Amino acid sequence: GQLHEGLGGLRTIQAFNGQSAELARFASHAKAHEDAVVGAAWARGAVPGVMEVLAAAALAGALAYAASARLMEPEALLSLLTAVILVYQPVKDLGRVTQFAMQAGAAGERLFALLDLKHPVLDAPDAVPAPPLSESIRLEDVRFSYGDRPALDGVTLELKAGQVTALVGGSGGGKSTVTTLLLRFERPQAGRLLLDGVDMDRYTAASLREQLALVTQEPLLFQGSVLENLRYARPDATREDVEAAARVANADGFIRALPQGYDTRIGERGVTLSGGQRQRLCIARAVLARARVLVLDEATSSLDPESEREVQAALAAVLPGRTALVIAHRLSTVVNADVLHVMEAGRAVESGTHAELLQKGGRYAALWRMQTEGPVERGAA
Prior knowledge:
The chain is an alpha/beta fold.
């Protein structure tokens, strides 16, 4: 765990000159692990040794008593000794098998406990495949909490087909939780999610997910080629389909410039590509999925300005005419959305277009001024 953590945060450790502290922490963990392994080895080695000594002592004592008391004839005593020697090794091996069985039983118990965990969103016995979205997805008075922390507090909003809907606001407002519920990773604790006016609980989770393509803040790519990563969304897609999706996402140009083009291997998590290139591949993959709704969850928030411009250009080509849900902190990235909902404390406190919300002079207007003009200095005229 610490080794993986350290390699992943290598630059941060070096930036804060934390190498000595990390080495000390690693040495401490390694010593504790070493002590545990050595202790377990001594325990495993001591038990058979003690059993050998006790068995030999018991056998010697029994033979000595039988010989001194003349309880058996020498021939019978020799036969008994031979039988005991022949049986001893199989019995000892059986003891080892019992030890392994106990270890396997403990491991199996943990494994089956994991396998028996129930998914928070199970299909109803009479659930049917969802029809393609034609009108809207609606959240009605939806409430959801993570433990004791409320994430959504009676939120009501609508995503109309063919429109770009944006959720904006500060951290902790409940924006990403909306995505979690739409993708059926969790079920709302109160309220309803409706697809074209029908409760989503009537449909299978798999058929609902087929209608949503997700692009997250952290571009998730797999070790393999560009082509394999894009086809992850639709394994039966032809090469022409893949290239068409890449062109829509403004990714075809840089892909063809790679050493082997679409067959170039990009390493673990796409390490050989820039942040903007990775995100454009994720957008191309979402386009290739032919999903009804494109979900962009902070898709540009972790990018540098140049990479963000690349991704914004890709989105400008992808979004028009599509049904999309865009979650963003930076309001400049969603000014062209058909409708914006300002999320705060788990509720949609304002809704409208960019111009309408600025005219209202409410929470959205304050956020816009903060991001475009910067904080007003105290005492400024």
